[in-house]
Amino acid sequence: MIKSNTIQGPDGYLDKTPVFQFILLSCLFPLWGCAASLNDILITQFKSVFELSNFASALVQSAFYGGYFLIAIPASLVIKKSSYKVAIMIGLSLYILGCTAFFPASHMATYTMFLAAIFAIAVGLSFLETAANTYSSMLGPKSHAILRLNISQTFYPVGAIAGILLGKYLIFQDGASLESQMAVMSVDQIHAFRLEMLEHTLKPYKYIIFILVGVFTLFAMTQYPKCKVARQSGHKAPSIGKTLKYLSTNNRFKKGIVAQFLYVGMQVAVWSFTIRLALEMADINERAASNYMVYSFVCFFIGKFVANLLMTRFSAEKVLIAYSIIGMAFLTYVSLGHDFSAVYVAVGVSILFGPCWATIYAGTLDTVDNEYTETAGAVIVMAIVGAAVVPAIQGLVADVVGMQLSFLVNFICFGYVGYYFFGEMKNKKANQVQPKLAEQTN
């Protein structure tokens, strides 16, 4: 058993960060990054194989992130009654079961069955994210909570890149695009071809299962601190109803939830349709188009490092306001550009996504009292349901006005994110001024 030698404060935070435990916890982030980026591959594959509209193909994200929305609160209840580690172990087990569901789905060859398998994976990931995001912020002194979560989130694009590469080489094939190939086939040939393409979709999940079993074993062997808020004798933890009532009156928390909802929705929407944008703006196949998603996740990775450096010199709010303004300019070009450079700018937008999730998450969690932390963290994770809504809206808009103009949906989302951080900056300045005024009065 690998042990942790740390002292826990009454607020649940530790006096120092247990390095091995923190690194192992951070290794969970690429695991859901891999699953999420594989969805971008599946959207493109299913659109051609099942002959779907952009809106219908975006239901992959709706099934995936809808699972987060439904399971986050139950996951928080598990954390309250047991521990973050138990929730993580449950999440890994359910993730493994979800991956195995791709085997019957590939043989049944129905879009609904694939959506069910994707939903099953999301159930496991909801446990993982609900536990790991809050846990990462608490594995050390509270003063560095945002930095720790940003560091853990830096591991995410590693998994995202791995997912795209697995999809590129194991799901997508050489030759012309799927639509071009099926255009010259007979009905019987198309049926056989579709079955063959669907068989390819389960290949990445075979490798993921082996990795998950290894990570599960390591977690089972590692001792983790509880990081639970100390309660006075006879003082029970607040109920879900009481917690939700408290959160509903917290205006800063509610604004953070909206910002997280729109940010996650925007990020997933851009990534969902970058491959489709490349296919529409150039005569290339799916495998070649998937390169632009690899570039996107490399940019995402770089953006996180740059943001972490910037936030050591400037406030997180100022960095995110600047990122939002630049992001809006980029998305305007993506929507109105007249050549393939629009695809490269869509790739570049990912640089600006880097610090958003972790900064919004940790900042929003910091607005609530310690006794409500577990449930508040789950509610923030529930905001991931934005990724089930915004891509579907963009897909619907794309069916009406075209793929390129549909990226204006994300322009609106980035605008709100910038507005949110501007409000947070004003709020912090006001909080800094009040103590000074009190001192002058005294």
TrEMBL record:
It is a multi-pass membrane protein. The keyword Membrane applies. The keyword Iron does not apply. CDD domains: MFS_FucP_like. PROSITE patterns: PROKAR_LIPOPROTEIN. It is found in: Cell inner membrane. InterPro entries: Lfuc_symporter_FucP, MFS, MFS_trans_sf, MFS_TsgA-like. Keywords: Cell membrane, Membrane, Transmembrane, Transmembrane helix. The chain crosses the membrane at residues 20-38, 58-79, 86-105, 111-133, 154-172, 204-222, 257-277, 289-307, 319-336, 342-363, 375-397, 403-422. SUPFAM superfamilies: MFS general substrate transporter. PANTHER family: L-FUCOSE-PROTON SYMPORTER. This is L-fucose permease. The gene is fucP.
